[in-house]
Design a protein that fits this description.
The complex is a heterodimer of chains A (about 300) and B (about 400).
Chain A lengths: L1 E10 L2 E11 L4 E6 L5 H8 L7 E6 L2 E2 L5 H6 L1 E4 L11 H5 L1 H5 L4 H14 L4 H4 L9 H13 L5 E5 L7 H18 L2 E5 L3 H7 L2 E6 L2 E6 L1 H6 L4 H7 L4 H7 L3 H4 L10 E2 L4 H11 L3 E5 L5 E6 H6 L6
Parallel strand pairs in A: 3-8, 3-9, 6-7, 7-8, 11-12
Antiparallel strand pairs in A: 1-2, 1-4, 4-5, 9-10, 12-13
Chain B lengths: L11 H16 L3 E4 L7 E3 L1 H4 L2 H20 L3 H26 L8 E4 L1 H21 L3 H20 L7 H8 L1 H35 L1 H16 L2 H18 L1 H5 L7 H25 L3 H9 L4 H31 L12 H9 L3 H29 L5
Antiparallel strand pairs in B: 1-2, 1-3
Classes of the chains: A alpha/beta (about 300), B mainly alpha (about 400).
The complex binds adenosine-5'-triphosphate (ATP) and magnesium ion.
């Protein structure tokens, strides 16, 4: 658990982060969004003390981070930045081995870990281990960047616009991969992004920042239904609100008993995808099937639409 | 339908080289004959400089190379032709010395003349052009250099050049030649080493502390603008004072003139390239690489040793290459103030109007600089690990 308590950062008279407090639960993904210059990166960099706070403190599992030596703290926290910052003179394997080497792991353990991570990120060790960063595509570099950050099995991963320089298709895939890996490893993640779709896709909770202040820290659905300030509403996008809300729920949430004709929709699909199916096929209602394909109920346009607005 | 006609393709540089060869062969003397080492001499065309059969063969080979230069397109063929040409004219000029000198005459001197030098230049141009077109890797270039050095050593050790005036000058001072060679290398390499020892930390400091940067660069820039003679003059007073008042300095051989001011002058000239390139190398390390290194918990020292220096190394080496080539040439002027080195022969030769003595000092200097440039370029290429 990460507790951020009254964290502030000042450069001269300029307040860059102003009294920000929030808590990130074990294994959760907290996404920080906000306009450019809002202080997102500064907030993130105060967690691993790349920036020294002017006031406030950060607790990791109850321990004040200032009681841990800086380098040691950073060995325990993964860090991924937009350009990845891969070391150009080191191979992929050497890049990934950076922190384990600093920690003095033995060679065999490092080699095993590197191979494990390359497999996890779908990079064939035989092909990629000996390549240099400039020989990789943007998407491959990104995966190596995340693999490197996870090498020493950190409980916390900080990511500053980690998908910022990927094209939309690769970006979607990278987000899904990150989610899958995060669910598997149970890593706590704090991720900074500009992209609201990304925030709603990945975030268990979303922190909205503007002009150094934290405006709201809430579950994605609450952010949509109960925005704390006009700025939050605006950032979320009034035109997109219903669809974002639907994408946060699955067919399970709006399923009705009964029967319908046609190709069934799976119960784990998001309501947004289900609505798209109904519109495209010109049907008011379609059957719902479970993972094995057995029919378990039905879903209707009206039923879905009711979920696209705050409950009265 | 296009007509298929065999066309002769004229290579542009090759044609120039061929013209140069023709000029050298038919319009310029191959060797100069002088009755003794300081009188002015008379030129001998190649046909007169060798016995008829030898002259014929040499002319045939040289013309063949000219033809190759103008017409052949494969770099390997051109390289082979140039090498063959060099392998013929170098022994030929040595042989010519024995042929032209009257039997039993120990005063007469024979030197390569403009014709020989033009031929050597033409062949060397052809060879370097071919080597460039071959795009040799660093190891290939080092191998080519070793072969050239080996061939030169073979030529000199075989005694084929012993009758040439240049080698007679050498024979008269073999001992001092090697002593000055050592001194020359010590001056050039020692001052370079000292410049690295001081310049690397200075470059690092000015990279880290922007306030220092301008002061250091401007100071060193001013040193670069002082002519060497003036710098010697400036150094005489403080060094003389040091020698007179500090016994240790005197014991170390530090005096107002001699090797010490030469060494210090070379050292001062070397500082700017080392400092400037260290700074440039460090500042071109990408910011996100440094940020990532910090974020992963590399300590400042680990960051410097594992990330910044390795990434800056090729640029720093480029600075060292500049210094090395510059120092090997510049060390010649040490002789002006009694500092020794190959310059000794150059200035003696100028004093005595003995051009071959000048060459005895100048040729090794040029050859050393040339070899140093090739070796360091190859090393720089080899250290660019992982670069695009
Ligand atoms: N070292 C520094 N010295 C002075 N001001 C700084 C420093 N670092 C950041 N700032 C200022 O703090 C503010 C917040 O910067 P920060 O990088 O945290 O914003 P951000 O929300 O990450 O923006 P972006 O989305 O563009 O990355 C900016 O106005 C920036 O100019
Ligand atoms: Mg930022």
């Amino acid at each position: 658990m990460i507790e951020i308590e009254h964290l502030s950062k000042r450069y001269g008279d300029n307040i860059v982060v102003d009294d920000v407090s929030f808590t990130i639960g074990e294994g959760e993904i907290a996404v920080v969004v906000g306009t450019s210059g809002a202080g997102k990166s500064t907030l993130l960099r105060m967690i691993n003390r790349l920036v020294a706070p002017s006031a406030g403190r950060v607790l990791i599992d109850g321990q004040d981070t200032t009681t841990i030596p800086e380098d040691e703290l950073r060995h325990r926290i993964g860090y991924v930045i937009q350009g990845y910052g891969l070391f150009p003179h080191r191979t992929v394997a050497e890049n990934i081995a950076t922190v384990p080497r600093l920690l003095g792991w033995d060679k065999k353990r490092i080699a095993t870990r590197v191979e494990e991570l390359l497999d996890l990120f779908q990079l064939d060790p035989g092909e990629f281990a000996r390549k240099f960063p400039h020989q990789l595509s943007g998407g491959q570099q990104q995966r190596v960047g995340v693999a490197r950050a996870l090498a020493a099995k950190p409980a916390l991963l900080l990511m500053d616009e980690p998908f910022g320089s990927l094209d939309p298709v690769i970006r979607g895939k990278a987000q899904d991969d990150l989610l899958a890996i995060q669910r598997r490893l149970g890593t706590t993640i704090v991720l900074v992004t500009h992209d609201m779709n990304e925030a709603f896709h990945l975030g268990d909770r979303i922190a909205v920042m503007d002009q150094a202040r934290l405006l709201q820290y809430a579950k994605p659905a609450d952010l949509l239904t109960h925005p704390a300030e006009a700025f939050v509403e605006q950032l979320v996008g009034t035109a997109e609100r219903p669809f974002r809300l639907l994408s946060l729920m699955t067919v399970q949430d709006a399923m009705e008993p009964g029967h319908a004709d046609g190709e069934p929709i799976t119960v784990s699909a998001t309501l947004r995808d289900a609505l798209a199916q109904l519109i495209w096929r010109g049907r008011p209602v379609l059957p719902v099937a479970d993972a094995s394909g057995a029919p378990i109920g039905r879903i209707s346009v009206d039923g879905i639409l009711k979920h696209g607005r705050p409950l009265a | 339908m296009p007509t298929l006609r065999p066309t002769l393709h004229l290579d542009r540089l090759g044609s120039v080289i061929a013209g140069l060869i023709a000029l050298a062969l038919f319009a310029s003397p191959f060797v100069t004959y002088r009755a003794n080492r300081i009188v002015s001499g008379e030129g001998r065309l190649l046909v007169d400089a060798l016995p008829p059969a030898g002259a014929l063969v040499t002319i045939a080979v040289v013309l063949g190379v000219a033809l190759c230069a103008a017409l052949a397109r494969k770099p390997l063929v051109r390289l082979a032709a140039a090498s063959l040409g060099l392998c013929v004219i170098f022994p030929a000029v040595g042989f010519s010395a024995g042929f032209v000198t009257p039997a039993g005459n120990t005063f007469a001197r024979v030197s390569p003349a403009i014709g020989f030098w033009l031929l050597a230049l033409a062949f060397a141009l052809l060879a370097t052009d071919a080597l460039t077109r071959l795009r040799l890797g660093p190891w290939g270039r080092l191998a080519a250099l070793s072969i050239a050095a080996g061939a030169l050593a073979l030529l000199l050790l075989s005694g084929a050049w012993n009758d040439l005036s240049l080698m007679k000058e050498y024979a008269n001072r073999a001992e001092s030649f090697w002593r000055e060679a050592r001194q020359h290398l010590w001056l050039a390499l020692g001052s370079m080493g000292a410049a690295c020892l001081v310049g690397l930390p200075l470059g690092l400091a000015s990279h880290r502390v922007p306030a220092l940067r301008n002061a250091i660069l401007q100071g060193l820039g001013i040193v670069q603008t002082i002519p060497s003679i003036a710098l010697f003059g400036i150094l005489i007073a403080p060094l003389g004072y040091l020698a007179a008042n500090v016994p240790l300095a005197a014991a170390l051989g530090i005096r107002g003139i001699g090797a010490a001011p030469a060494f210090i002058a070379l050292f001062l000239y070397s500082l700017l390239p080392v400092v400037a390139n260290t700074m440039a190398g460090l500042s071109q390390v990408p910011a996100d690489v440094i940020e990532a290194a910090r974020g992963m918990g590399l300590s400042p020292r680990q960051r410097l040793a594992q990330i910044e220096l390795p990434l800056a190394f090729p640029v720093i080496l480029a600075g060292i290459r500049i210094v090395l080539v510059q120092n090997l040439g510049l060390a010649t002027i040490a002789a002006l103030i009694g500092g020794g080195g190959f310059g000794t022969f150059v200035f003696q030769g100028i004093g005595q109007t003995a051009i071959d003595l000048v060459l005895l000092g100048a040729i090794p200097t040029v050859a050393l600089s040339f070899a140093a440039a090739i070796i360091l370029d190859a090393i720089i290429d080899l250290t660019r690990r992982g670069a695009a």
